[in-house]
Amino acid sequence: MANFVSWNWRGIKNKFSDLKDIINSHQPSIIALQETYLKPEDTISLKHYNLLHKHGIGNRISGGVALLISNSFPSSPLTLNTSLQAIAVQIHTHSLITVCSLYLSPNTPVDQVCFNNLVTLLPEPFIILGDMNGQSTFGTPPDTNNRGLQIEKLLNDHNLSFK
Q1: Which of 65, 76, 102, 124 is the most buried (most CB within 10 A)?
Q2: Please, are residues 68 and 127 in contact by the beta-carbon 8 Å criterion?
Q3: Is 117 exposed, middle or buried (0-12, 13-18, 19+ CB in 10 A)?
C-alpha cells in the first residue's frame, strides 16, 4: 500500500533528523517537501530513497520543492514546463499514479493560467501535495484569501476534489 507525506520543511538540511524519524515511523512511499532551500548542486542521501528536487526561483536560497521516492516503488520523473515551484513523478504502486509537490510563496502572485497549465501537465490520476498558502471555505476556520479563491476555481474548473 502506498502512503504519502507532505511537509513544508523551511530548510531540509536543518531538520534532517526529523525527516529520518518520519521515515522510520511511517515508511512513506513518497515524501513531498516544500521550502527545501536546496541549491541546484545540493544532494541528500537517504537509505532506500531517491531524491528529485527543484531549487527555488531566483538567487536567494528560499523556496524549492522535492520528492523523496521509496526504492520499493518503481518511478519515473516527469518534466513539467511551468514557472511554478512544482516537481512531479509517476509512481507504480498497485496502479500508476502521478504525485506532484507544489510550493506557492505567499508573496508571489500566481496567474490562474499557471494553475490550469499545471493540471494539464499531470497525467491522471494525480495528487498534488504542497503548501499553496491559500485559505478557502474548505478550511477551518473558513477564511478566504485570493489564493484560496484561485484554488477553489481550479478545483471547480477541472472537477477535482480537495482532501
Answers
A1: 65
A2: no
A3: middle
Report the domain count for the chain. Answer: 1
Cell digits for 73? Answer: 516503488
The CATH number assigned to the domain holding 13 equals 3.60.10.10
pLDDT, mean of each 10-residue run, the chain (163 residues): 85 77 91 87 85 77 88 96 96 94 89 93 96 75 79 86 74
Partner residues linked to 101 by β-bridges: 87, 129
pLDDT given for residue 143 in this prediction: 75
The CA-based diameter of the chain, rounded to the nearest angstrom, is 41
- Which value, to the nearest 10 degrees, does the dihedral of the CA atoms of residues 20, 25, 29, 30 take? -50
Whether residue 163 is contained in a domain is answered as no
Q: Is residue 43 part of a domain?
A: yes
Q: Decide if 33 is inside a domain.
A: yes
Residue 146 included in any domain: yes
Geometric angle at alpha carbon 139, from 137 and 141, rounded to 5° = 90
Question: So what's the pLDDT on residue 29?
Answer: 94
Residue in the structure block whose three cell numbers are 499553496: 132
Q: How many CB atoms lie within 10 A of CB 114?
A: 15
Cell of 141: 476556520
